Structure formats: structure tokens, C-alpha cells
Amino acid sequence: MMQLSTYVNSFLATIMRIFEDPYWWTVALSSLVQLMIFIRWIYRRIRNDEMMRAFVEDMAKIHLPHTYALLEKICDAQGIDPPNRPRINWIDLAGPHY
Questions:
Q1: How far, rounded to the nearest angstrom, does the alpha carbon of residue 17 sit from its chain's CA centroid?
Q2: Containing H/E element for 45?
């Protein structure tokens, strides 16, 4: 039992020496700041991708049909045969990959 307490005391002394060294505090603090900046960057990147996906989906579902309807009215007024409306092909990037 005496050997275990000696080992624990030496281990705690080593840890205390590490915390007393200002260079370790500098490394720890700079690493923590870099980690926080990385987490902030990755969050913004993911959020930006979500907003971009919502914007493209909104454009395809809501605004493009109105645009094509107005284009068909302009073609009718000018006496031009309107082009066929293109289908919207969705690519599911979150789905299963074969």
C-alpha cells in the first residue's frame, strides 16, 4: 500500500509541475482558442450550406414556376411557341450511396 501512495504522490507532483509551468498554460490556452475558432468556423460552414440548400429549393419550387408562367405569357403575346418547361431533377446527396 505504501508503494501506491508514493506513486500517486509522484504523479500528482508531476501534474502540479506541469500546471506551474507558464509555457504549458500558453500551449493550453492557444489550443483552446484554436479549437473554439474551428468549432465556430465549422458551425458557420454547415449553417451556410443549409441556408444555401433551402434557398435553391425555394427558388426551384416557388420562383421558377412563376418565371416560366410569365415567360409563357410573353411568348403568347409575341406569337412565339413557348419552350417546354424543364423538369426539376433533385439529387439527394444525403441519401444512400450505391
A1: 40
A2: helix 22-58
For residue 90, give the 3-state DSSP assignment. Answer: coil
For 50-75, write each residue's pLDDT tens digit: 898 888 888 888 888 888 889 889 99
With 0.85 as the threshold, say if the pTM is over it. no
Please give the C-alpha separations between residue 67 and each of 61, 70, 74, 77, in angstroms, as whole numbers: 11, 5, 11, 15
Domain ranges of the chain: 2-78
20-57: pLDDT as tens digits: 888 888 888 999 999 999 999 999 999 998 898 888 88
Give the type of residue at 42: I
Contact status, residue 65 vs residue 88, Cβ threshold 8 Å: no
Closest CA to 49 of 94, 98, 96: 94
